[in-house]
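Appendix B. Chain record.
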Amino acid sequence: MHIPGSIAGRRRYAPAIAFALACSTTFTGPDLAADGGTPTPSVPALKLDWKPCVQGSPFDCATAKVPLDYRNPGRRTIELSVVKRKATGPGRRIGTLFFNPGGPGGPGTVQMPQNYEFFPRKVRERFDIVSWDPRGVGNSTAVNCFARPQEADAWMAGKPAGLPVGEQQQTAWIAAYKDLARRCQQRDPELLRHVSTADTARDLDRLRQAVGDPQLTYLGISYGTFLGATYANLFPGKVRAMTLDSNIDPQAWTNHASDDDPRLPVFLRMGSDLGAAAILDRFLALCGSAATGRCAFSAGSPEATRDKFDQLMQRLRQHPVGAWTYGRTVGDVVSGLDIVHPGWTFLAGRLQALWQGRVPQQPPPLPVPPVPNPYTGDEQGAAVLCSDSPHPRDPGIYHVLEEAAATRAGDAGRFWTWAAEPCSTWPAGAADRYRGPWNKPTAHPVLVVGTTYDPATPYRDAQAMAEGLANARLLTHNGYGHSALLNPSNCVNEYESRYFIDGTLPPAGTTCRPDEAPFSAPKPSGGVDTGGGAMAGTVS
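Structure tokens predicted for this chain:
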């Protein structure tokens, strides 16, 4: 399980010296306290033995060993799989930019290389870019609740795709995730208690030390923003530069640090259902305003296209097209809204195929990563989400929650309700969970990027993140999709580059727009700061 999307503006410099001073922070001066978190026993220094991931690859790989439990570092150790692309500007390297692609459950060793060209050129020139598979995920010591791949395939095939529809499917869904929880508890119960965001933040600080950087430079997307906020409050003195793109409200994730049983699951607390409903409405309106040559699903006007979509959803409830049920289609729509170019064009084509009673073609495969393509089953994201974030523990209540969410957010409300239901029966809680405070003063300010129409992490969460951190600046990307990194804006890239390189923040209230509007005529992409090239993949 992961936040679908697998796993955001900037403008001109102000000419006045006084304003430039107000909007920048130089990367010099005394450091703050090294660790604002709970003191832990000393841990031996981490060493990274970098080698080419594969012969001739520009990416280097290493394996790090870290304690399973930082409070008892002398006991069991686990492995972290790490990947690096060296800075491309000879003699101009500043340091290392750490990147987390989101999830939870996103394997950085796969998704960073796949999306490397989206990083601004100036950032690629000046920084080594490093990512890793967080503990419990991918090629690191992973949560894997099946003895053989065939068992995992059979489990996946036995549950409804996307979301369950009707009592029979709901019963099957709940039973499947109960079975998954039972399998996970039997396989490695100790690991399940030590894959929290706080654990991963401590791993990140160990990786920072291993590359020799005195402070952290970091870019986190989606769930990676919650990881960043956790790091910033555990290690406030170690923040050099931190960009949080497509944000999760930490108060929503932690249910305001309450010990009471939550009334809503996390995605409804975040407002993911409302965000997805809003961007779906814009997708249909913009599609309907375009000719079918630009948007295959267009019915000639926004209203007619919205009606066409509603009719298709009603029809699929009764008459699936092959394996494309209503539940699978809604899940595909929500995920398909993440990447505008070319994702929205592909999504419109799939919807049109279903309208015509044809099984849709799948989009082109993602580039092959320079590392073994790891197993990334539902249990890896669930192990983090369910141990970190509280959820209603009665599986029977999710149908009621679904109907309430559907009233306010339509099909998207149904999807986001069931996306968190596996946590109702998850067997383990985190041994080390950080729940706040979120406003510890950091050594340097944090840059928060929020996209106005985001199907997973709504703009209001970016506003909440910027307000909740002690020293943060909100940059608004007035556009669409999940993350500004993968929905390029030259304006965003320019501000982000300046911030990472010399600490200059965008002026307060800055708003940027994407380089291309949805369903617009293709433009030559020659600008390196746009991220360079077509979509290289998706990040959760």
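Further analysis of this model is presented in Appendix C.
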